[in-house]
Amino acid sequence: LLHDFGKVGVREEVLVKAKKLHRAQLELVLARLEHMRTAARARMLEDQLARARARQPDDGAAQRAYAARLAEIEGFRQAILAANEPSIMPEEAGSAIHAVAAQSFHDVDGRPIRLLEGPDLQALLIERGSLTPHERTEVQNHVRHTYAFLRQIPWGRDLGGVPEIAAKHHEYLNGSGYPNQLPAAEIPVQARMMTIADIFDALTAADRPYKKAVPIPRALDILGYEARAGKIDADILEVFIAARVFDCLNLPGS
């Protein structure tokens, strides 16, 4: 547990963020959509009232325009909900969100209000996952917090390397890890072992609100891909799989 102790320094709403928009953000966006529906209905009623006062027959144009506007607004809602999922965003979804972002309405005082504010748009355009660049940096900084905390503990001679091991368990052998993009030569074997165990745990854990657990075979496939990509130690992974280290977790399928 100590390897992730630094997460106490990360906002909980970021750690457990399951969608691109925080709940309060999404509720506000949906409230704006509801305001647009209300405004469309008011416009229809005003048109009908104007025709009635002019003693003109109701030709149904106002109702048709209202129905078309409701369909358009529902399209906006569907685009927002689809983009809010933390999956890989297809190009057409990004185009749809830009179209939604161009929409605006007027509040009761006549001031224009954009359907999507800047932070909303930035979040919905995340290409993969649920975190904005700022939030991702915040999460990644948990490693720095962990190192700072663990250095305060008098580990003694035998365990003196614990802070360094914990601080490097998100580093990759090809230099693409974090927080310091270290080369393989600077990543000790203990940290390499922890990296594999940590990735496996993240993939198979059923208690993560932001993702579903994957089956053990799929998790091992993903680890194999990471090894072939030069990120994790292939030799240690081979031992991890051959020894079935994960059996001690009593996971489904183990």
Secondary structure blueprint with pairings:
Layout: H1 12-15, H2 23-53, H3 61-83, H4 91-101, E1 104-106, E2 112-114, H5 118-124, H6 133-140, H7 142-150, H8 162-167, H9 189-204, H10 216-228, H11 234-242
Antiparallel strand pairs: 1-2
Helix pairs in contact: 2-3, 3-4, 9-10
Question: What does this protein structure show overall?
Answer:
- The chain has 254 residues and is mostly helical.
- It has two domains: 2-9 and 136-249, Hypothetical protein af1432 (Orthogonal Bundle); 19-128, no CATH class.
- The chain is 54% helix and 2% strand.
- It contains eleven helices and two strands; from the N terminus they run ααααββααααααα.
- It has a two-stranded antiparallel ribbon.
- Strand 1 (104-106) and strand 2 (112-114) form a beta hairpin.
- Helix 2 (23-53) packs antiparallel against helix 3 (61-83), helix 3 (61-83) packs across helix 4 and helix 9 crosses helix 10 (216-228).
- The two termini are 22 Å apart.
- The relative contact order is 0.11.
- The model has no long low-confidence stretch (mean pLDDT 91).
